[in-house]
Amino acid sequence: MLDDTLISDDLMDVVGQARERANQKGERFNIFSILKVHRDEAETHSRFLHELLNPRGRHGEGSAFLDLFLDGVLGISSQGGQHFRVRRELPTEEKRRVDMVIESPTDIIGVELKVDAADQKAQLHDYYHELQRRAEGQKTVTLAYLTLGGKRPSTMSLKELSEDDVVCLSFAHHITGWLQKCIDQSQHKPELAHAIQQYLQLIRNLTGKGGTMNDLVAGELKGDMERFQEALEVEKSLPKAKASVQEVFWKELSDALTDEFGVTPTVYNASTIASMSKDYYSKNRSNKHIRLKFPVCQLDGKAIYLYTNLYHAVHYGLRVEDESGAVIAAQSLRDTFREKWGTGNAVADKDADWLACYYFNPKAGDAEKIINFDSFNTAAVGLLDDEVRRTLIEDMVAHQAELAEKAKELSSQ
Fold first, then answer.
1. Are residues 201 and 241 in the same domain?
2. Which residues, other chains included, contact 342 with Cβ-Cβ below 8 Å and sequence gap of 6+?
3. Segments forming the whole domain that contains residue 176
4. Which of 31, 78, 151, 328 could bridge 67 with an S-S bond, Cβ 3.0-4.6 Å?
5. How far apart are the first and last CA of the chain?
């Protein structure tokens, strides 16, 4: 893809040496990343944090880690943590679940953590009122919103709450600092300290604070004019190389969809796959909205289509078009679909004009399969491998075939 003559041996040495230094203590050997659970909010982050915070946790340190969190992160007196109870997935009256709740005779603290998941409508609002209900006016209520960078919650999630009702915490600052203190406190138990160190390294990687290879390369380049100029030449070539990878993906996906459904998808918002791939990396934001689509079935004068869209990440699913070809919201049909088969896992799934929208088949994949052509994440880079690309496209088309059958089942009712 990339003209190798643009990359001198000297520049390649810089990259190679940086890669070695970034792993000189084995930092790349992270058990969470190897097992591909590093972004799993419920089964990795919530469980691990709960285990550390729980005074009865298998770490055997009693309330030591909880005390450090309450006193050092939330500024709440732990009083030795003796009377605190820590729970996961606390159910609410609205049939939701608060990720973690820490409760004592005087305080009730809810923690909602986000790694990739989007805010939900009135989510924090419902959690806050659930905590208030359980406090019965006898306890101080604290609701913490924990994200990678400490961002503010959306007004959709807050609903009638004020931002002042929520304490914003970040993995990048608050959790990394707390974890380091936990490690310092665990030196008498090397295995425990190492386990926490692994999780700390994971958080640093996720938040870009891990002393990554990129950081080390940048440090080398800023002091060498010649190498910096070479890097700029490579940078100029990247959009073309990225577009080439994207073009191959779209062409092979279109061919696979044609083979599966016997219909060639329409390229929407661009003349050809080649042009839409190239234009994606231009500065015009309208070029970010590209897609393939084809009809699946008819229902009451309307057509149900399978769409494969791209803005930042590739997502796909079912939408309804009216007679003019405009995408419309079909609320009753959407409700019926979701009642029978559940919701999608893409951010766009919350939009009313999708019956369901996915990044990947939840039965056969995980967040590792999310292809982000904007950030050109690991999954996007993986498309350079013919076998990886073929397998990913096969999985995506097989899932779309399942969705098409579900749409036809709806139309026959």
1. no
2. 356
3. 31-206
4. 78
5. 49
